[in-house]
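During the second year of the project, the team shifted from modelling isolated chains to modelling whole assemblies. The rationale, set out in the original proposal, was that interfaces cannot be judged from single-chain predictions alone. As a representative example for this report, we include one of the complexes processed in the last quarter. Its constituent sequences, exactly as entered into the pipeline, are reproduced here:
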Amino acid sequence: MGVVKKVKSEFFWILRTEGGIPPKDIERLEQLMSNMENFSDVGFEKLLDEMVTDES
Amino acid sequence: MKVKDMTISGIRGVPSLQLDFDGKNVLIYGENGTGKSSIIDAIEFFFTGTVSRFKGVQTISFNAHCPHVDFKPEQMKVGATINPGGRTLTRSITDFPIIPADMEEEFSTMADGTFILRRTQILSFITSKPSERYQIIAAMLGIQVLETVEAEMVKVTKKLEAEKADRRSKMVSVLKGIQTELDYSVKDLDEVIVPLNARLSMVGLPPLEGIDEIDTYLSRPVFGSVDLSIKDKVDRISHEFALLPDAFLSKDISTRLQVIEEFVRSHNGAKRQVDNTALSLFEAGRESMMRTETGTCPLCQQKVDPTRLMVDIEERLLSLKHFKEESDNIDSLVLELVDEIKVAVTEMERAAKVANDHLALQEHAGRLTRSLLSFYKVIEELESTQGRTDNIDCAKFDASIDDANAILQEIHEFGKKEVESIAPSTPDNERLQTLLLVERVRAAKDVLVKMESEVSLVERKLNYAQKIHSTFSEVRKNNLQELFDDIIVDVGRYYRTLHPEDDIRDIKLSIIPERRGSAELTVTCFAKGNEDPRAYLSEGHLDSLGLCIFLAFIKRLDLKCPLIALDDVVTTVDSGHRERICDLLYSEFGNAQIVITTHDGVWFEQLLSYQRASNVPSANMEIIAWTPQGGPIIRNKKSCWETIEDKISDGDRCGAGNEGRRYLEMVLEELCLMLKANVQFRGGSYRYTSGDLFIAFRKRAKDVIVEQEYQDSILPLIQKLDRTRYMGNLTSHNNEGAYDVSMEEVRSFCNSVREIDKAFLCPECGRRMQYFEKDRMITCPNPKCTYPGNIATR
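Output from the structure prediction step:
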């Protein structure tokens, strides 16, 4: 497995097992990082906004 | 995947060139400046669409400097036939090759050009900063995207941290405001209760039980005579009267009116503006008199005395100018007066309105309105008569001003009394002030609560961002470190293969935990751990280390990297170690097509010899000449001995002798090195002659070879070489003595070199035999050899 793929897979595995982030938000993050080349601060910030909005 | 052939057009020093690799490894030999690196550039351009050595240098650019001098960027073109399938692909700036599906992965591995190693890259990798080194590694492994993602995460985390700090700072500022009001140090809202209750207690008001009670505190019916709205009322009335002036006009106005009146009277009433025309007329008359100089009056045509007339005109002009100046001053004065009286009128109208709002002042309002009439009249007079004051009764106007100012004073007095009558008593006022303080604290509390909620939102986002970022960062670092550790195992193995005798161990490539995107390279050397490799390694060893790191990374790319190009990379490595590099390259990377360029004839011969011995298929080329317009001229490169044989059969005595001399130098250099002969030290820049090397080699051979069989076979060969070796110098350097040399003598010299060469080659694999002191043996270094032909030594 390529390093990038391995990092991604381990990263999400840890997020899921460690807790602290709701599963549906992990899914959203996974979607956001599906094309890592396009990952941007704007998209990441939008995700965080959605996370806290849903929380409240 | 293998490159079968390549056609290059218009790149660097190559206007046009056809190279036939035949899908084999490639050796290209050529002097400096003959186009070797241009061929490597063309290979890089074919696979990547660019040439990396033109990137990141301000003074050169790909478009300006990569094309051949007679070509434009769009004319650069590289075509290649790729096996399997013999598919021909072409790359130019505008046309990209359509990669066959079964080769996509290999092309993608090579797309960033990391399959090419140039000598400058080796040193720059070792000497670069950890962050730059990380970038090189990231590019090689295609992991830049991890860095990009982390950078974006860091950006957001930092932004949220800044937002949180900003809101916190604003909260501190609001809290400081409360602190100033209470004159008491408070850290948060809860701490406000103590000083606030103290203030309430001082004025006999009940305390607050908690900060939340502040919202309802002011609506309690317990405050008796304290009417919170009284303050607004007092403020409103005070403000209303405070806006009125202390006086409408000063008496100075009538004094200035008298000045105007005086001026008008002394200048005979209303003739002020006439004089502009008179002034123009007299000026015209003076000019005409000066021009004509006749004794006739220009106005009445009567005979006059011109001199006297001019004096009269000048006098009149002076007087008129003086009058005009005064007249202009009066005009300004009139305008100023009108403006001032108009302002007074506006103030009086406003004062009349204020007075009208209060029953007790309505009479004052009427008086002010009547007074206004005389003011209106004065304005009208001044504006309509342009300064004539004949009809203005200054004394009467004076009286009106006095009257209006007196009414204004009475209005002010009333205002003062009114405020005093509604203002609370001192104790009530103190309570009022305290309650107003409570109100301000309540308002500040609202602001703080709102900000607290905003901070909480930012903090929640920040917690998520930090959690995501720290997890990602840790996973990335751990994986990269694991990867580096894997790679460094290969680096260490390769390095030990090249330098088994070195006390260099524990080569480390480490991620620096506290720094993003950095890779530190250290070695343990002479028992000193974690040192910069430059601290103890020679330039040749650094080159070796760089090559090992490059190869380890290539190895990491497994079989996906089908071509490796080494552009003149081992120039500082001595020939003994190069032998091991051959071994490393062809044994570890046998599946890749290896393209090596060099200007070093000895290294080239070593590679050839290794290839022959190990049956490595190779297309070998020599660049024999280069011109700017023609580019490199290439022929298939033959070994020294093959070249000598060609020249002998052509009857070229000098050519054969010259090649023989080169062959002798190469063989002696190798033998001295492999037998560990003691060559007399001549200093760093000294180029050792074949004489120096021969003496050392002969002594060493005589000293160490003990077996009679080898003494009998090898020592005569050395004697024969000693007898004939002068021929090398004789046939070189256009020596006149070369004319008397026969082909037979040249052949004998070359044969004697060949015999010595062969005497120390492994009879099984053909590699150069080596002296091993521990085993007291001259033998083949190839561990796979089953019949190495050992020569026992002392």
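The interface with chain A takes residues 141-143, 145-146, 148-149, 152-153, 155-156, 159-160, 457, 460-461, 464-465, 467-468, 471-472, 475-476, 479-480, 483 of chain B (CB under 8 Å). The CA atoms of residues 1 and 192 of chain B lie 79 Å apart.
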